[in-house]
UniProtKB/TrEMBL annotation, chains A, B:
Assembly description: Homodimer.
Source species: Maribacter cobaltidurans
Protein name (record): 3-isopropylmalate dehydrogenase
Residues the record marks as site: Important for catalysis: Y142, K189
Catalytic reaction(s) noted: (2R,3S)-3-isopropylmalate + NAD(+) = 4-methyl-2-oxopentanoate + CO2 + NADH
Keyword Transmembrane helix: no
Length: 351, 351
């Protein structure tokens, strides 16, 4: 297969982790006779510095004409601590999600047998966890009108949802549940928010289309608690943009490290693959960041292209590296650790 | 001391848990020579059924003229599963918070020596946790304009903050931090939300007033993760209404049970004390709910009235009940358990 993959390394540790995923993908291509042509493009603070905006048109063209996008991370403390900055890296991410029509963010949470005791949670609570949070990604308070009023003394953001936005996300959730344990949980705050009530009403109306799926409804505060108490109680969770942002980061502690959790964003022609972690600026340039979340995101990429063997091969070699302790310092617990680039090299060599 | 306390039992398990707190307070009053006059009043679904609205004027008058309010819980599944209901129990809670000017919700998270192994989290991660989440309670998306548009196909909620709302909450946070470990963490989503940028900007501007306090800023998604990974890293957290709702429920898993975590809501003349758990309808009427969160909320009530010995006595007897296994079934782990009312009786007798 011939593949064009847009490569958006972004900020902080983005370039380092993306480099390792490239090594792994190239090794896979070599073994399974594919030809990957990588198309690097600018995004985030890196793009602001180079061309003044975080998701330049040229980057969009590269993404839109590729078979998939592999994304690192964006964000820079320089902007975080300046609430008045006009242009910010995150705007690039949001613009990209919107322009590529990536309305569904798929974030699986699972455990790794060899890491299970590294989790802050007890083994019996998490062993066997296998859930997916399907986060709405191009609507909600991330995209509603926002601004200042009253001489800069009032700020507002608007949380808006349209029925069709909820429907298309929920449909993916129902379909996913059908292929898994047939359990769907809609997480909202319908006891307070009108937009959540539209979520609940819309999902309720779809239940009859999928009679085999058991649907439950939970308030986001309760889910934030139950997700830690008993993650095995969940199969597929569907939720709004902001709630999904919070719950997926929270869920990452189950696996023991945020540095392990991959994601895909889908919805239109081209899909995007990225680790759920951020740009982790403190670690940038030090060759210490964990590349596995990005490598596992690449596995999701192959999976979605129905290159199942390739995806499995990546997961196999990742598990092997964990079992043999070829890990970055976040997973080493004071034991021997490897550099980001060394982990990447090891993975590529073992494919 | 002569005390008038408004008693708002509310829905679900509310009446049962509040009853036990009353027994405990009466025992305290007896021992320390206070006179408590309880003023029961309607709220929640119970009030809707009785008089058609969840926070009747009469209830407000009783609250406003009391020295404090003891609150159970509100909420009923009948409303949760009917997104089109016009009157809902939660509106009562929100109206009450607003009309009583309760802009700051104080939610401590701590561990109990005798329960530490019941937490889903590992002992070394949580032992010694002592943090307070100070949640803004009368602003944000809970109180902004909301509604439907486009023939009912679009729903919106508005997340609004005014500078003074952030300032008064943050000031409480700074003051609290000064009395504790002098660490304040402002949790927001300033990389996306304008209202969060106003939070960050406002808190930044206040830093110079409290030079001894070390202030940090975090995005809510990161906090949702770190709170579980390393709760001991936090001292006082200040945050917006919705974020506080999610994070405080999440934090309750640290102590091992939501049935243990008390809260106070303050801001104006009269303060309110309530467990952080909800109405838990599945358990209502069964005499099985854990009353300790409400009992410990009563301890916060005495504390705020500067009746420190009384507050300590309540905490002592609660710890004693836990150590001796006089607990409801949620904490019994299959061992011997006691009824809600039996726990209340035991506590009162041991004061
Ligand atoms: C960087 C930020 C804007 C982004 C988000 O909130 O969506 C990130 O946290 C994520 O989850 O991908
Ligand atoms: C019942 C509900 C409206 C309420 C809230 O969201 O504030 C509850 O979850 C709480 O935290 O007190």
């Amino acid at each position: 297969m011939k593949l064009n993959i847009a490569l958006l390394a972004g900020d902080g540790i983005g370039p380092e982790v993306v480099d390792q995923a490239v090594k792994v993908c190239d090794a896979i291509a070599n073994k399974y006779n594919h030809e990957i042509s990588w198309k690097p493009a600018l995004t985030g603070a890196a793009a602001i510095d180079a061309v003044g905006e975080p998701y330049p048109d040229e980057t969009h063209e590269i993404c839109a004409s590729s078979d998939a996008v592999l994304f690192g991370a964006i964000g820079h403390p320089r902007f975080d601590n300046d609430p008045s900055a006009k242009v910010r890296p995150e705007q690039g991410l949001l613009k990209m999600r919107q322009k590529l029509g990536l309305f569904a963010n798929v974030r699986p949470t699972f455990t790794f047998p060899s890491l299970i005791d590294k989790s802050p949670l007890k083994r019996d609570r998490i062993e066997g966890t296998d859930l997916i949070i399907l986060r709405e990604l191009t609507g909600g308070v991330y995209f509603g009108e926002r601004g200042r009023k009253d001489d800069n003394n009032t700020a507002f953001d608007t949380m808006t949802y349209q029925r069709f936005e909820i429907e298309r996300l929920a449909r993916k959730g129902f379909e996913m549940a059908m292929k898994r344990s047939k359990k769907l949980c809609c997480v909202d705050k319908a006891n307070v928010l009108e937009s959540s009530r539209l979520w609940r009403e819309t999902v309720q109306a779809m239940e009859k289309e999928f009679p085999e799926v058991t649907v439950s409804y939970e308030f986001v505060d309760a889910t934030a608690m139950r997700l830690i108490q008993w993650p095995k109680g969940y199969d597929v969770i569907i939720t709004a943009n902001l709630f999904g942002d919070i719950l997926t980061d929270e869920a990452s502690v189950i696996s023991g490290s945020m540095g392990l959790m991959p994601s895909s964003s889908v919805g239109s022609k081209v899909s995007l693959y990225e680790p759920i972690h951020g740009s982790y600026p403190q670690a940038a340039g030090k060759d210490i960041a964990n590349p596995l979340a990005t490598v596992l995101s690449a596995a999701m990429l192959f999976e979605d292209l129905e290159l199942t063997k390739e995806a499995e091969e990546i997961r196999r070699v990742v598990n092997k590296s964990l079992a043999e302790g070829i890990v970055t310092e976040d997973l080493a617990e004071g034991g021997k650790s490897y550099k980001t680039s060394e982990v990447g090299d090891w993975l590529a060599k073992n494919i």
